[in-house]
Amino acid sequence: MSGEATEEMAKAPTDLEIKKQILLSLSEFYPLKVDEVVLLSAVRRSDAGGSADQISKNIQSLVGEGRVEESKVEAFFGNKETYRFRITSEGIESLRSLYSDKKSLSILQADIESRIADTYELLKTDMKDMIADSGKIRQELEMSIEGLNKRIDDLSEGLATIKESVDRYAEIAEGERVKEEHLILRILTEDERKIYGIILEADGEMLQRDLVARTKMSNAKVSRVVDRLESRGILTKERHGWTNRLRIKVKP
């Protein structure tokens, strides 16, 4: 074995050193999760160093031991998936056994506690802002609802007024229509009044062939008179087999 290879092996970090650095790196971000690429870069740039494969192997070892939490997420770009990691409470406790220097351990613990306190304060501030915003939104919604209710009341009053006007004009129009129909009846010819009267006596409905028999007029003459009455809207004509069914539309 050459001297360079021996020197390279001597410089290679142990798994314990790499695990220690992984936990240290994750503790610096606690309680946030760290992307795999960021964690690999942080460990490789540390004093521990190590290859990407060696670091990945020890990360998985810590996950299996319950000292690191792993979660799979979608990558920001492309359809690939990536992983994020966060130190667990077991991982924080294990740093005590990995540190022999009490001073360093005290500094680490204080730093973690400081990060937790900062995160808690940020969450409290965010919650206060959310509560304030929700109160403002609720007030604006109540004002909008009040305005809508007033608008609905105004529209209801307007619709009621319109309905009264429509009903009044409909009543007037109906009266005018009745007057017009009665006027039409007064200007009927003798034959038209005769046919109209016969149908009216038959409860306002009869077959045209029966009408011919009753009037003793020709079929052609009855047809002409019926057509005139139909054109004036006084009666309706509906096909019924070989004849027509006649119905009075305008009654006196």
Describe this structure in words.
With 252 residues, this protein is an alpha+beta fold. It has three domains: 3-98, Arc Repressor Mutant, subunit A; 100-180; 190-248, Orthogonal Bundle (Arc Repressor Mutant, subunit A). Helices cover 69% and strands 12% of the residues. It is built from nine helices and six strands. The strands form two sheets. It has a three-stranded antiparallel beta sheet. β2 and β3 (81-87) form a beta hairpin. α2 (15-29) packs across α3 (36-44), α2 (15-29) packs across α6 and α7 (190-201) packs across α9. Residues 5-10 have low confidence and may be disordered.
Chain-wise SSE layout:
Blueprint: H1 3-11, H2 15-29, E1 34-35, H3 36-44, H4 52-65, E2 68-74, E3 81-87, H5 89-98, H6 102-186, H7 190-201, E4 205-207, H8 208-215, H9 219-231, E5 235-240, E6 243-248
Antiparallel strand pairs: 1-3, 2-3, 4-6, 5-6
Helix pairs in contact: 2-3, 2-4, 2-5, 2-6, 7-9
